[in-house]
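Second opinion, please. Pick holes in both lines of this record:
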Amino acid sequence: MVADTSLKRAVDRILPRTGLPVLLYFALVVGLMSLAAHLPLRGALALDGLAALAGGGWCSLNFWRCRHAHCLVTGAGWLGLSIFAFVEAALGRTLIAGDEQMVFVCILVAALLFEGLWSWARGTNVMGDRRRPRLAPPPAEAGR
């Protein structure tokens, strides 16, 4: 997508979508979750929340820019998980038996399944694409 506004150009500068910067960003998210396992509960929950915030923020911006179907699910899911984990950190206890990282992975799996189904049904992984869905009947020919 062409960046047609200054805000979109700014997001494109700080949000690379390919190459080494993407790998480093994802490594940061995984690193935060790995580090969380070695901290006391409150710190672990805060790092899990930070990792979910980083992932959800990335995917939300990417959805806004590129409309990839999986980013709708991961963006909303991980941002929600980050709020939940930060609340847990403030409370000083987990409300889901310490399964915050498993929820993170489940959101990723749900997002990939959603995108697969979307792509199968629509013929594209882009949401809001104007192309006709694959399952729709062909348009009637003019003059019949």
Observations:
- The mean pLDDT is 89.
- Helices lie at 6-14, 20-36, 41-66, 69-91, 100-122.
- The chain has five helices and no strands.
- The longest helix spans residues 41-66.
